[in-house]
Amino acid sequence: MKHIVAKQIGKVLLGGAILLGPVGCKDFLVEQAPSNLTPDNFYTIPDHAEAALAAVYDNLRFFGDGSGIFSSNWQMLEAPTGTSTTETAQNSDLNNLYGLVYDGNTQHIVNYWNGWYRVVAQANQALDKVPGITPMDAALKTKILGEARFLRATAYFNIVRLWGDAPLIVKPQSATSDDFYPKRSPQEDIYKLIVEDLTAAEGAGLAWMDVSGRANLAAVKAQLARVYLTMAGQPLNKGAAYYKLAADKAFEIITYANANPTAINLFTNYEDVHKESTKNRVEHLFMLQYNTLVAGNPMDNMFPNFKPVTYNGPSGTGSTVPTLSFYKSYETGDLRAKDQGYFYTSYFTNGNGAPFDLGGPYIFKHFNRTSAGTAGVTGSRLNNLNVPQIRYAEVLLMYAEAQNELGAPTQVAYDAFKRIRDRAGLTTPALGTYTQATFREAVWRERWHELCYEQITWFDMVRLRKVYNETTNGFDAFVGHVNQSSKQALQEKHLLFPIGKQELLNNPNLRPQNPGYPGA
User: Fold this and answer.
1) What is the pLDDT, as a whole number, of residue 491?
2) Do domains 40-188+473-519 and 206-289+388-454 have the same CATH topology?
3) Which of 22, 196, 272, 302 could bond 363 through an S-S bridge, CB–CB 3.0 to 4.6 Å?
4) Residues in domain SusD-like N-terminal (predicted)?
């Protein structure tokens, strides 16, 4: 972030020198030093607005920051799902997440809280200061503010689903702010702000897609559909009215996609889901942007432990690998469970050599063959792959689920669901063979199998209060479901994460701790 903002400041200062020309020694000595720039005197020209927004985007990448040996922050949302396990077991905090014995000292949880609230803080700064920048093109200002509101809504959407009642901060803070030690706001209030922010972003003049990776209209509408679908379920239980809102919003994207299939669509094959050349395009409605010049892709913890699948030779940590039971739960013939799909059971020695057997399935959903190498082709060694956050595949499944909850599966809902299965090479029973109940579970199964390892499954478990059972192919109640990765049962307390112990010590207004965790 500092690097990006500094570059923008440098442009501003250079422009000032050119415009002002030579100045007297006395004037030079009394000029404001760049190191004295503050939020009160920085936001003066449109470049500053762009710099403020860049800082918000930059902070999203906390998601991939390290969380101790052989672990990254993103693993917090995968380990408790039960769909993955570890070959390494070197990181005690990650082990606690797998074993469902995490608490307020777990580093991933602390990092997530700090990371999302940094996004909120940067977004609040932009939303507070950018309106006062003049002169500035009105449409550009509205667009930047819309993007900032999308990003703030995204942050709060994660916060409220992870911790429930949480501080709701909408203005920049300082040590003298009245709410410097904020209390927790009810979830309803947080969701109200999320919807307001996304609705404002929807009207901010954003393009439907943006290959630069910035927020776009399709991403905003998809996020709104996610929010409405979540509000319809647990814990708010708003029901049919919100299922309809979710279905309608998802259908707006589907309608646009049907009319513009080269702009928004499913990729024809699974390789394109993790290919550098398809970043921010077609199926990828929103992604976290990664480039090795700034930050390299953080998903390498899915590489097999000490096996030569890249130019590095025997390496990798294997700290997130699929459970065999989840891998085997895919239907026979499902292309997602075959090499070239989301899993590989063999690869090429050192990335581009002779093929060898991996000894089991591994997650290749985020594997960059351009960087690592592939058959007969040396890798670039530069992992510039982005991390998907919203895919069109999810939009189709959201529509199918939400529309079904309004009474029964319709032809359009069935068609959306069937498109996911068609790409997987699967035969789908006729619409008339489904009841509302059987179609509901069929869509849920597709969510588990299509959206796995994208930090979505955990949130499905919480909003549905259901967990996919790989053995029965059905769904268990959340409380009491036994994760096959650890053989441990989910408890009521796991519906929320604990607040970090240090946060509770620093701010007593956050108490009580979430139920079931030490410090409550």
Assistant:
1) 98
2) yes
3) 302
4) 88-229
CA dihedral 220, 226, 231, 237 (to 10 degrees): 160
Query: Which residues have a Cβ under 8 Å from the Cβ of 156 and sit 6 or more positions away?
Result: 116, 120, 166, 168, 190, 193, 194, 197
DSSP state of 296: -
Using omega within 30 degrees of 0 as the cis cutoff, is the peptide bond preceding 512 cis?
Answer: yes
- Integer Cα distance of 98 and 116 in angstroms: 22
Q: 206-289+388-454 — its CATH code? A: 1.25.40.900
Per-residue pLDDT reduced to its tens digit, 224-256: 999 999 999 999 999 999 999 999 999 999 999
In this predicted structure, the answer to whether residue 17 has a pLDDT above a threshold of 90 is no
Pairing verdict, β 321-322 and 284-288: unpaired
> Of residues 328 and 44, which shows the higher confidence score?
328
CA distance 35 to 476: 57
CB 278 within 8 A of CB 369: no
Query: In this structure, what DSSP letter does residue 374 have?
Result: B
Cis peptide before 135 (omega within 30 of 0): yes
What does the block give as tokens for 57?
Answer: 């985007």
Is residue 305 within 8 Å of 61, Cβ to Cβ? Answer: no
pLDDT of residue 43: 86
Q: What is the pLDDT of residue 230?
A: 98
pLDDT tier at 157, thresholds 50, 70, 90 = very high
Answer for the pair 123, 151: CB distance below 8 angstroms, yes or no. Answer: yes
Beta carbons of 491 and 479 less than 8 angstroms apart? yes
CATH architecture of 40-188+473-519: Alpha Horseshoe (1.25)
Using 50, 70 and 90 to split pLDDT, how confident is the model at 39?
low
Residue type, 227: V
Tell me, what's the pLDDT at 178? 83
Residue ranges per domain, the chain? Answer: 40-188+473-519, 206-289+388-454, 300-385
DSSP annotation string for 130-147: GGG--S--HHHHHHHHHH
What are the residues whose beta carbons fall under 8 Å from the beta carbon of 304, sequence distance 6 or more? 87, 316, 318, 321, 358, 362
